Amino acid sequence: MLTLGRISVRALLCALLVLTAWGAQARTVAVGAASFEDPVVVDRVPLQINGSGIRTRFMIKVYAAALYTQAKVATTEAFHKAAGPKRIHLVMLRDVPGDELGKLFTRGLEANLDRATFSRLIPGILKASNLFSECPVLKSGMGFTVDWVPARGAVLNSSCIARTEVINEPEFYAALLNIWLGPKPADDELKASLLGTAAKSPRDARPGSGEAAN
Fold first, then answer.
1. CA triplet 94, 96, 99: central angle to 5 degrees?
2. pLDDT grade, residue 129 (50/70/90)?
3. Is the pLDDT of residue 172 over 90?
4. What is the pLDDT of residues 72-112, one digit of tens each?
């Protein structure tokens, strides 16, 4: 019969083994000048990078992005159907005004939604837009994450401001992710990269400013 002390020691050893294995598997993935941790933990669940890439506009690198899932997905439908936590992480590769970012994401949402759905999601859209607008300039190297946490909803965090925005509607998270994964994504090549269906090819673009961010 095991004593409480022995059980505690065994539990501690198991935990140490898990942490050791986790550390051995952890890596940093470079995407242009940005880097992403792989794996990450969201709501106590480990997520791996499903795909990553760079958003460019007129040969200018705007931001790097990484999509995180529990298991690999290759289609937008599979991503939306996947249960449990998910994440997209964006890191700016140039300075982007916060209000510009908010407006452009609103346009990206509108491009992938019918009018009725867009109208229904306006409260969440305004919350997300306001979060971005609170940051005067999202400087190169700064970024934000958009997580899906089943018990809470869409959780938005920006490295520019010390505030979290939570939007409860599941439909909002799917709509927001469709900016990158929907039928009219911000960038077709980035969509393929995030879903892991594009051949990896560096985009040799000079850094710059003045173009749309999303």
1. 175
2. confident
3. yes
4. 999 999 999 999 999 999 999 999 998 888 888 888 999 99
| Domain residue ranges of the chain, discontinuous segments joined by + | 28-194
Residue 61: what pLDDT? Answer: 94
d(CA 98, CA 57): 18
Q: Are 184 and 111 contacting, i.e. CB atoms less than 8 angstroms apart?
A: yes
CA distances from 193 to 16, 39, 85, 98 (A): 35, 18, 20, 25
For residue 189, which of 202, 206, 174, 176 has the smallest C-alpha distance? 202
198 has pLDDT over 70: yes
pTM of the model: 0.81
* E strand map for the chain: 27-31, 34-38, 40-42, 45-57, 60-69, 86-92, 96-97, 137-138, 143-149, 153-158, 164-167
Sheet-wide strand order for 45-57: 40-42, 45-57, 60-69, 86-92, 143-149, 153-158, 164-167
CATH of 28-194, one of 1.10.260.40, 1.20.1250.20, 3.40.630.30, 3.50.70.10: 3.50.70.10
According to the model, what pLDDT value does residue 162 have? Answer: 84
Q: What are phi and psi of 87, to 5 degrees?
A: -155, 145
